């Protein structure tokens, strides 16, 4: 099924990431689970593979491979470790703000560093009091000559304790036009981190608190113009957040199916493998069906995103389908494992814990369904995917072409991180 969207090069990328994840990430999972703190070493090692540059143009040192390739990278890492898949997806949120709103100087400064793995970026929007209500934020920035002075706190920031460059959306005025975004280096005076709190799952990944106490930031660090902050937040959430979290859920879901089928083949009941029991086999069938449907929705959405198409609804649907189906399959897996699934010598309980972490970011399932209802009613307020994809084009979007008959005969060119497909570069294009 996935071959409809993927090429031979995507399969090679999958093998490369899967091999790395098995070799480098899996042996570190016990230590991450035990410490429940940020896994700095493996996070940096993953970044050094160049995968954070999946949607960064070649002229800035990126892969220019597109959102489908990015999805495969996150999916394969999440299949082994949801925490490390989450680390990459959070970094990609940080990429979005610079790709879509960064000045040429900001792009030249930061995108090559991100693509090379020398810089882990973040996006910081949420606050305790406002939650998912972006316009309710209170953190502020006040102009002072050639600088801005930032004050306030941001919470649930992915890569908070390993990030090098924080994209921060704060209030500079009233209303929806009063939000502005800034790039804040982690070593800037007046910036600090809150104490990292142990969480239920995603051990090794940090999603903590950023504190700004009269933090002085040059006006040159502003992303776009004053008032662009809402669009900066949405570019990360709509184009990257929903797709990226979908990929994390998909990887966890794949791991759930693989581990449960392995358990059913190894464990015997009444002299036969556990999967010989009809009720167990039905549950396995349900899990496989959900996984196939989830992957189809995920790949279709990011394929449209790579084409520069209007795909807000598809991205919302992919997130809700993948999150809910992974949680449903996690429950099936726990039912099949029964008491055996409760102990940490098997990874099922980790998959279940990790899957719950993907529910809220970039909008809960209720939020996605409310927006999908607006699509059905014809009351949706514009297309963020179309608007934001056009920000990185020099020319108007070209009509979508029919896929080539032979998927392995694509026009691939050698890029900084290996060969990349030319047909998928027009969305992230050269800016």
Can you offer a commentary on this structure?
The chain has 431 residues and is α+β, with helices and mostly antiparallel strands. The chain has helices at 8-25, 29-35, 40-47, 67-80, 82-101, 104-115, 229-266, 278-306, 312-337, 348-356, 365-377, 384-390, and strands at 121-124, 140-144, 147-158, 165-171, 179-185, 191-193, 207-218, 222-223, 268-269, 272-273, 412-415, 418-421. The strands form four sheets. The protein has a four-stranded mixed beta sheet with strand order 1-4-5-8, with helices on one face. Strands 2-3-7-6 form a four-stranded antiparallel beta sheet, with helices on one face. A two-stranded antiparallel sheet has the order 9-10. Strand 9 and strand 10 form a beta hairpin. Residues 393-431 have low confidence and may be disordered.
Summarize, please:
This protein is of the alpha+beta class and 431 residues long.
State the share of residues found in helices, binned by percent.
Answer: 40-55%
Strand portion: 5-15%
Structural class label: alpha+beta
Which strand order does the major sheet show? 1-4-5-8
Number of strands: 12
Question: What characterizes the major β-sheet?
Answer: 4 strands, mixed
Shape: globular
Report how far the terminal alpha carbons are from each other.
33 Å
The helix count comes to 12
The pLDDT mean sits at: 89
What is Rg? 21 Å
Q: What ranges have pLDDT less than 50 throughout 5 or more consecutive residues?
A: 393-431
Order of helices and strands: HHHHHHEEEEEEEEHEEHHHHHEE
């Amino acid at each position: 099924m996935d071959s409809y969207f993927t090429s031979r090069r995507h399969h090679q990328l999958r093998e490369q990431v899967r091999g790395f994840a098995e070799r480098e990430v899996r042996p570190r999972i016990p230590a991450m689970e035990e410490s429940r703190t940020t896994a700095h070493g493996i996070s940096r090692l993953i970044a050094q593979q160049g995968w954070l540059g999946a949607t960064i143009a070649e002229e800035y040192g990126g892969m220019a491979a597109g959102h489908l390739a990015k999805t495969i990278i996150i999916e394969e890492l999440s299949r082994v470790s949801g925490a490390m898949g989450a680390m990459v997806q959070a970094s990609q949120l940080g990429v979005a703000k610079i790709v879509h709103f960064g000045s040429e100087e900001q792009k030249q400064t930061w995108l090559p560093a991100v693509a090379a793995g020398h810089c882990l970026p973040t996006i910081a929007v949420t606050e305790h009091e406002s939650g998912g209500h972006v316009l309710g934020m209170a953190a502020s920035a006040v102009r002072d000559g050639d600088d801005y002075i930032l004050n306030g706190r941001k919470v649930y920031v992915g890569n908070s304790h390993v990030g090098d460059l924080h994209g921060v959306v704060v209030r500079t005025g009233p209303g929806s036009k009063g939000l502005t975004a800034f790039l804040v280096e982690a070593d800037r005076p007046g910036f600090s981190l809150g104490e990292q709190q142990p969480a239920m799952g995603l051990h090794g990944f940090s999603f903590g608190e950023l504190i700004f106490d009269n933090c002085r930031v040059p006006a040159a660090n502003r992303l776009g113009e004053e008032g662009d902050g809402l669009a900066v937040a949405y570019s990360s959430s709509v184009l990257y957040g929903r797709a990226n979290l979908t990929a994390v859920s998909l990887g966890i879901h794949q791991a759930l199916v693989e581990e449960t089928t392995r358990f059913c083949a190894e464990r015997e009941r009444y002299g036969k493998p556990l999967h010989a029991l009809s009720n167990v086999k039905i549950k396995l069938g349900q899990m496989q069906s959900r996984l196939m449907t989830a992957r189809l929705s995920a790949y279709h959405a990011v394929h449209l995103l790579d084409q520069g198409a209007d795909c807000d609804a598809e991205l919302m649907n992919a997130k809700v389908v993948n999150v809910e189906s992974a949680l449903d399959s996690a429950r099936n897996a726990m039912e099949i494992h029964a008491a055996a699934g409760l102990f940490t010598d098997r990874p099922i309980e980790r998959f279940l814990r990790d899957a719950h972490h993907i529910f809220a970011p970039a909008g809960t399932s209720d939020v996605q369904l409310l927006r999908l209802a607006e699509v059905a009613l014809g009351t949706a307020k514009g297309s963020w995917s179309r608007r934001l994809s056009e920000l990185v084009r020099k020319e108007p979007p070209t009509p979508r072409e029919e896929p080539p008959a032979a998927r392995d005969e694509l026009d691939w060119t050698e890029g900084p991180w290996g060969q990349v497909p030319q047909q998928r570069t027009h969305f992230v294009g050269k800016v």
